[in-house]
Amino acid sequence: MRTPRLRVAIAGLLVGLLSACTQMPPLRGTGDLGVVIERASGSVQVVENTHRTSLGRVEGLGDLSHAHVTYSRDARYAFVFGRDGGLTKVDLLTQSIVKRIIQAGNSIGGSVSQDGSLVVAQNYEPGGIKAFDADTLELVAEVPAEYAPGQFSKVVGLADVPGQKFAYALFDAGEIWVTDFSDPKHPTTERHKAGLQPYDGLVTPDGRYFLAGLFGEDGIALLDLWHPEKGVRKILDGYGRGEQKLPVYKMPHLRGWAMAGDYAFLPAVGRHEVLVVDTHTWKEAGRIPVKSQPVFVMARPDGRQVWVNFAFPDNGWVQVIDVPTLKVAKTLEPGKAVLHMEFTPRGEAVWVSARDSNRVTVYDTASFEARTVLPAEAPSGIFFTHRASRIGF
Q1: Is the per-residue pLDDT at 61 higher than 70?
Q2: Which residues contact 21 (CB under 8 A, 6 or more apart)?
Q3: What is the pLDDT of residue 244?
Q4: What is the pLDDT of residues 166-190, one digit of tens each?
Q5: Could you count the other beta carbons within 10 Å of the beta carbon of residue 84?
Q6: How far is Cα 163 from Cα 285, in angstroms, rounded to an integer?
Q7: Quick one: how far is CA 389 from the chain centroid?
Q8: How far from the centroid of its chain's Cα atoms is residue 221's Cα?
Q9: What dihedral do alpha carbons 146, 150, 153, 159 form, nearest 10°?
């Protein structure tokens, strides 16, 4: 039989447990979460794309101009790469910084290894890549981009590829390197001649082909990762031959998002065109005239549409290409200085950042109606967690 004192103790314990439970955040997954970069304030907003809301803000991430984000294998942690060389691990559920390091003088992004154990940064200054333990951010190995004695190159277009490997381009060297981290502390690297000034890269969704866009010449460098011994093949060679190239106001970007069905859609450097490549033959299949110089050319996940934004002075516009007809089907004006777009995992909506309008607009990709407008401080990149399970992101 319980005594009055025992009953009081049990009641107190239950009250304490109840109080603790009410203070805990509700359990939830991370599959519909993401971050919006706020470049001017060095912060990110943690957002969710089911109800299209902002959950909170994480500050203190340094210089986020041209910031890039990749995700841990469990899609809980965002690795944020800043232009100041900062690498910050952010917990999306607690909306807090787990750890932050300065790993270089000027960084341009990074990626996570196939098994999720390594996070690799690509750097302008000093040139090269660095591999860190994804749990602790402790340095595991470094591969300097020394392409000739005493000469180092900026690294661009880093992408994780199967086999614990990373493919990337060396802008100054005109080469593509593939580094194998199967033995994490003793990586090995293959070098391939690519062409003049590779400016960015993408790997196909199956991880087989790595493509690097060339800034110093008209063309794309293509490396078959199943047969690297065959070397780099040049495709779209001289696509602007005989034409006057326009001044380039912003370097285009490439990623695996440019693949739609049997085609790759690629920005033409210094031209008002999107190039279409047949991925069976890797030959040009067409050119689509667009409003200005394309920056991001991104396919909706089902491949039915391709959305394009543009360089200054036409960076307030977005155009939508209908893939079956290869024609522009819609032109939108989301705001001033549209910098990035990100589709929801199944593509029913796309989030569009407009830096100088301080807002992110969420569009229905079927009706093109704006569903939601979220305020943000000079927003740039938008990164959802479904990237965690994709090759090359």
Answers
A1: yes
A2: none
A3: 63
A4: 999 999 999 999 999 999 999 999 9
A5: 17
A6: 32
A7: 13
A8: 20
A9: 10
